[in-house]
């Protein structure tokens, strides 16, 4: 059977890391696409040479023409600009919306059967726009944010409790902004929901509150440290988990920016919810039971996403 073809649209920090992981995992052949000439070719060649050391058989190619993504099974989109210190994800909207238009048209023309994972920020609005620009089915276009935000949440919990990250299931829903919704009651350490963990003295309520806050601002913490861009290792790992679940039909339940049609009482927008990812793409949304406080946080986060969608519509009147 032919190897899967993975097109990485954007060969910057996340794109290069994605290519490296995809090759090491032998997930499929990789096309690294970018508008910058030389960058995708150089990174592809560098990783291809490394494959002779790590011993995996994959073909890697750098490209500046959309023709090269033809027939891709998966497209992972990181094209655009990242944050610099002092910027919010929303500050990227104007530039990255134009990039999504070009990328969406390229995917529509050359890889209409792909499963598309968007990483470009501001995420929930960009994936919504990308779906419209590409015209692909809504279940085949999804956004990566929740896996990353939940991984940050899980890591901070592991650090605070001394429990392996493998035994922590953390969930962060809503939009990929500072008002995202870490689901404290639904997240578990060794099977114990976090409120129970506090009751049993594993960590204090104050510490848990601080972890929730740090999770919400997790992206900004990295931007402030790096100074020249935003996180790339954890975002790349997160998208690879999503791509793997699709390519291997694993049906993992992952928190992703997914198109909602009635679930969580919402319609016609993308926001982070747990979803089964399998060969059909975003196959089934898992609806968590939520209390009034969680509903209010979710509603606030959704309002921010809707605000970004309105800002996109004001820039590009083709968006509905
Ligand atoms: N088509 C293709 N590639 C493009 C385009 C375009 N129209 N515009 C920009 N690019 C490329 C740039 O040339 C660059 O190589 O996108 C790449 C982005 O890479 P980085 O600047 O290194 O950004 P990165 O850290 O990878 O983040 C990319 O993901 O997490 C989000 O906020 C982040 O929106 C940002 C995106």
TrEMBL record:
The keyword Methyltransferase does not apply. Keywords: NAD, Oxidoreductase, Tricarboxylic acid cycle. NAD(+) binds at residues 10-15, 34, 96, 119-121. Residues 5-143 form the Lactate/malate dehydrogenase N-terminal domain. The active site is at residue 176. CDD domains: LDH-like_MDH. InterPro entries: L-lactate/malate_DH (IPR001557), Lactate/malate_DH_C (IPR022383), Lactate/malate_DH_N (IPR001236), Lactate_DH/Glyco_Ohase_4_C (IPR015955), Malate_DH_type3 (IPR011275), NAD(P)-bd_dom_sf (IPR036291). HAMAP family: Malate_dehydrog_3 (MF_00487). PANTHER family: L-2-HYDROXYCARBOXYLATE DEHYDROGENASE (NAD(P)(+)), L-LACTATE DEHYDROGENASE. This is Malate dehydrogenase. The lineage of its organism: Bacteria, Pseudomonadati, Pseudomonadota, Alphaproteobacteria, Caulobacterales. The gene is mdh.
